[in-house]
Structures are given as C-alpha cells and as structure tokens.
Design the sequence.
C-alpha cells in the first residue's frame, strides 16, 4: 500500500469521527483531503457529497456524485450513487429528476427480492420524493409497502418498522389527514418506547411529530405537552446547540403563535434561530425557515417592516442555497408579497407574487394548492391596486373641478 493511500484512509477515518459527532464541516474537509490523496477511491468523493448535502450545498454535492459515478462499475456502487444523486436533486428542488434516479436504482435492486434492506430503503426514498411533489397517495403506497416489508423481515417491534410508521404518518399529515397521522405516529412512538425506553432521540422525534398533529387539530395544550417532552429529551441528549433542540423550540413557537401568544412564539423562534446560526451559519435551509417563521410572527403583530426584514433574510439565504427556481424561494416571495400587500404597497406585492407564481407553476404545477393560493393573492393585490388607482384618479378629477 502506498503512503498516499494509507494517509487517505487515516484522514477518512478522522472524517468519520467528525461525522459521528455531527461536525459535518470538519468531516467534509477530511473527505476532500482523502479524495485528493487517493482519487481512485469512490467512497471518499461520495461521502464528501453527503457532507455537502448535510451543510446545505446540494448543488455542489451533485458535482461530486457525478465525478464519483465515473469511478464505479459495480452495480451496487452505482445504486449507491444514484440514490445519493436523487436526494441531492430533490434538495435542489428538482424532485422529478430525483425520482428518475430512484426508479432506476429500484429496478437494479430487484435482483435481491423484496425482503432486502436496500429495497425497503428505496421504497422509503420514493415515499419521501413523491411527498415532496405533493403526490401523497403515491407516497403513502411506498411507505406502506416499506411497513409490510419491514414487518415481514424484522417484525413490528423494530426500529425500521417504527421509522416507516413515522413517515407514513408524516405523509398523511402533509395530505391534511391529521387523524390518520396521529394513528401512525402513535404506533411509531409505542414501538420506539418499547425498544429504547422514554429518554431517546427517536422517542423525542415521535413526540415532536405528534405535537405537530395535535397543533393542526387545534388541541394546543396537548401539542405543547408533546413538544415540551421532545424538548426535555433532546436537551438532555444534545444540549442547547443542536438542530433537534432548535426544531423543538421552533415547534413550540408555532403552537404559541396559534394560541395568539405572538411574543412568546417569538421568544422560542429566536432561541431556535440562535442555535442553528451557531450550528450552520446564515446560508442553510433551516436557518432560512426560522427567519421566515419570525417574519410571520411579527406580521401577525402588525409589525410589517420587521416582518419584511426577516423574510428578506430568509430569501437571501435560500437564493444562495438553491437559486431562484425552488419551492422554498417561492415561499419567501409569497411571504414578502403578503407583507407588502398588508402595507398597501400593491406594486411591490404584485412583483413578489408574480415571481412566486412562476416558480410554483414550474415546480409544483398549475393545479397545486400552493400555486392556486398565490394566484388568488396576486389577483387580490391587482384588484386592490386597481381600486387605489381608480380612487386616486377621481380624487384628482374632483380637485380639478373645484
């Protein structure tokens, strides 16, 4: 073994240690160095791609994966890169391209038969992807298939089965069927408690999901109980500066906002934002989400200029991460349109709504509920502008006559 190959293995090993500690930036540096030392090993460039996705740079990850694909000939390795490319394309907002890679990967994996971990994982991946396209029935079909295969392979009281229960619940949640979402998340929680006991991150994850379900069902006190339980577990597990804790604070903010306690919501949102800024820096999708939520809370208080300030921060972050043609960017433009509309600045509102409609047409389709919602808001802003201009015209006419 040459010195450079041995050195590459050592550096890669350090990267794995950083990855286990969730220090993805340091892990990325190690994997890139390992690749430079031994450019023939596809593992190094693949895992560098994973870290780029974890740090909010999916576009760059795609470059790495495509270079890595040139190094592999084994079908299992090709599948590995295709599945990673799928995730990166989905993170970039091109879910259709992601699904193409996942379907290709599943076709190769058929050689293993249905009851194989990689086949089950591929059904889970397709469930995630179809959910991103709001094709919830297709998403649920894949997740329910994963449940059946996991039960056949592992039994019901298994971590993988619990995960599939959880994701099926998430798809029902996104579809708006919160009662069914509660059913599946309660099954996931019961399995996880049986496996891990009460104080485990996966238990916290299920508590968080149930908190969101009860929030949607307007059972706010029940929602707060679940979120506080999740927060207590995650604080004990990770300490304050961790993404899981940040999301617990964010979710509590959502519930307090729904109760009309906007200042309390802002307090939780600010804690979530401060934590994730330390973890990720400004250019990360989760940071953009928390800025957006703070904007919504200030908008609810009628503090529109402050809301706009946060919405613009979210937009700037998401533009750097994704570029213009991404659903999250459309969401930011939609929020900015609503804030400017509330201020009576209809020209600016129309400008932002038009941008949001363009991207939602492109990425979600013209019949998607979010596209239709923004089109409705755009129509309202145009009508309001027309009435304002008409009123202004008659005022000027009246003054001339007098």
Sequence:
């Amino acid at each position: 073994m040459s010195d450079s190959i041995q050195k590459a293995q050592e550096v890669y090993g350090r990267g794995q240690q950083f990855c286990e500690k969730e220090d993805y930036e340091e892990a990325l540096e190690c994997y890139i160095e390992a690749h430079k030392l031994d450019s023939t090993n596809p593992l190094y460039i693949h895992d560098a791609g994973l870290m780029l996705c974890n740090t909010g740079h999916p576009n760059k990850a795609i470059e790495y994966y495509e270079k890595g694909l040139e190094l592999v000939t084994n079908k299992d390795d090709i599948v590995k890169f295709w599945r990673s490319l799928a995730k990166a394309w989905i993170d970039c907002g091109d879910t259709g391209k992601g699904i193409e890679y996942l379907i290709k990967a599943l076709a190769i994996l058929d050689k293993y038969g249905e009851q194989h971990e990689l086949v089950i994982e591929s059904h889970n991946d397709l469930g995630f992807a179809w959910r991103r396209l709001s094709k919830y029935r297709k998403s649920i079909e894949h997740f329910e298939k994963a449940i059946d295969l996991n039960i056949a392979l592992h039994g019901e009281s298994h971590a993988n089965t619990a995960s599939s229960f959880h994701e099926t619940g998430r798809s029902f949640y996104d579809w708006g069927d919160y009662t069914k979402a509660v059913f599946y998340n309660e099954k996931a929680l019961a399995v996880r408690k049986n496996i891990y006991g009460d104080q485990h991150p996966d238990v916290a994850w299920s508590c968080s999901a149930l908190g969101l379900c009860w929030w949607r069902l307007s059972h706010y006190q029940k929602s707060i109980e679940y979120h506080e339980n999740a927060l207590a577990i995650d604080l004990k597990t990770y300490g304050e500066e961790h993404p899981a804790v940040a999301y617990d604070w964010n979710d509590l903010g959502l519930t307090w906002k729904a109760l009309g306690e906007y200042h309390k919501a802002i307090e939780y949102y600010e804690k979530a934002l401060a934590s994730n800024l330390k973890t990720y820096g400004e250019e990360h999708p989760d940071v953009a989400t928390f800025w957006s939520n703070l904007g919504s809370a200030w908008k609810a208080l009628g503090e529109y200029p402050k809301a706009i300030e946060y919405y613009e921060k979210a937009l700037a972050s998401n533009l750097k991460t994704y570029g213009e043609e991404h659903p999250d960017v459309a969401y930011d433009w939609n929020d900015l349109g609503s804030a400017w509309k509330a201020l009576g600045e209809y020209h600016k509102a129309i400008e932002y709504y038009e941008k949001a409609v363009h991207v939602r047409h492109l990425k979600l389709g013209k019949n998607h509920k979010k596209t239709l919602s923004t089109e409705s808001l755009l129509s309202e802003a145009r009508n309001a502008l027309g009435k304002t201009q008409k009123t202004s015209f008659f005022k000027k006419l009246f003054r001339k006559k007098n």
Summary: The chain has a mean pLDDT of 92. Residues 5 and 38 are 6 Å apart (CA to CA). Residues 1-89 form a domain with the Serine Threonine Protein Phosphatase 5, Tetratricopeptide repeat fold (CATH 1.25.40.10). The radius of gyration is 24 Å.
